[in-house]
Amino acid sequence: MEKYAGLIRHYRERWVAYGHDPADAVVGAGFNGLYVRKNSQDAVEGYRPVFDAFMDSPGAKHNQLPFRTLEEFLAGGSVLVGSPEEVIDKFGRYQEAFGHELSGVSLEVPGLPDAENRASVESFVTDVLPVLRATYPSRVWS
């Protein structure tokens, strides 16, 4: 996360250096996966086959991920996996580091059964998104 926070600071500095009002800058952040379950253990174990399949794919070798285990990926990657409270907490850590107002969240998880994916998205929309919108308002979507 710190690598990207440093880039955002740099871009904000360049924005100002070119004469723009810092208040006009809008930052976006992306989250490369979403899997919300009522409890953390179910989320981690439900996402494990998805992670393992990806790590066995050519894409993992091409992307040269710095993570070797699911636990490392969940701790250091931008994937939102966990209970609603954990997803809110992780999003908040990113928001604190980046100060972003736009978020891209990958809702379709390749390899996840459709019913599980649908339940995850529904939980995100009903249990997570209202808290995020209330806690982190955005000029873009006001």
Brief write-up:
By secondary structure, the protein is mostly helical. It has helices at 2-17, 40-55, 58-63, 70-76, 84-98, 114-135, and strands at residues 28-31, 34-36, 80-82, 102-105. The protein has a domain at 1-11 and 57-137.
Characterise the protein shown here.
This is Luciferase-like domain-containing protein. Residues 2-100 form the Luciferase-like domain. InterPro entries: Luciferase-like_dom, Luciferase-like_sf. The protein is mainly α and 142 residues long. The protein has a domain at 1-11 and 57-137. 58% of the residues lie in helices and 10% in strands. It has 6 helices and 4 strands. It has helices spanning 2-17, 40-55, 58-63, 70-76, 84-98, 114-135; strands spanning 28-31, 34-36, 80-82, 102-105. A two-stranded parallel sheet has the order 1-4. Helix 5 crosses helix 6 (114-135). The longest helix is centred in the last third of the chain and has 22 residues, at 114-135. The chain is globular and about 50 Å long.
Annotate the secondary structure layout:
Elements (H helix, E strand, L loop, with lengths): L1 H16 L10 E4 L2 E3 L3 H16 L2 H6 L6 H7 L3 E3 L1 H15 L3 E4 L8 H22 L7
Parallel strand pairs: 1-4, 2-3
Cα-atom Rg, whole angstroms? 16 Å
What is the terminal separation in angstroms?
Answer: 27 Å
Total of DSSP H or I helical runs spanning 4+ residues: 6
Q: Provide the low-confidence segments as ranges.
A: none
What is the 3D shape?
A: globular
Estimate what percentage of residues fall within beta strands: 5-15%
- The secondary-structure element order is HEEHHHEHEH
User: What do the pLDDT scores average to?
Assistant: 92
Order of adjacent strands in the largest pleated sheet: 1-4
Helix content: 55-70%
Largest beta-sheet characterization = 2 strands, parallel
Secondary structure category: mainly alpha
Strand element count:
4
InterPro entries: Luciferase-like_dom, Luciferase-like_sf
Pfam families: Bac_luciferase (PF00296)
Domain Luciferase-like: 2-100
Protein name: Luciferase-like domain-containing protein
